[in-house]
Amino acid sequence: MAETRRLFFALALPDEIQSQIISWRATHFPLSAGKPVAQANLHLTLAFLGDISADKQRALCQLAGRIRQSAFNLCLNDAGQWLRSGVIWLGPRQAPRGLLQLADMLRAQAARSGCYQTPLPFHPHITLYRQATQAVALPAPDFSWSFRATEFALYSSNFKQGRTQYQVLEKWPFSEQ
What we know:
alpha+beta; 10 strands
């Protein structure tokens, strides 16, 4: 059987914003909120691909390279919790059209390539905690981080020594218009 890798397309967060979010999270959520996502793993998933062979990875990368997308501004100013999936998240109140278009294109390409895509609508978010199965008080909506999204990337998810680590495999820049 061919070797596979667990892959996804995502937007990275600038390092400075990652640090600010980690500090904010530490002061706004109790230690018992769930399993915190490591700072280096904060990202916004565009399309989850699953366990992918090297051949399918190459094909998906070729398709991703054909996408023409303008850079866009992203404002992270909303937070929520999905008890069923045990996730506490941070995201935009109003997702930019460019973000939604990019996710739709990547998800459609993934589905056409045989990667299962959830029928649920895309909800752009950054996972702050996993295994958050008890309701927590959400912070007052007086927070906001903004940045210009200038590229997207293909990541692999690797589980080593009891920890999940994400590795960028390839990046595609957006155009500035």
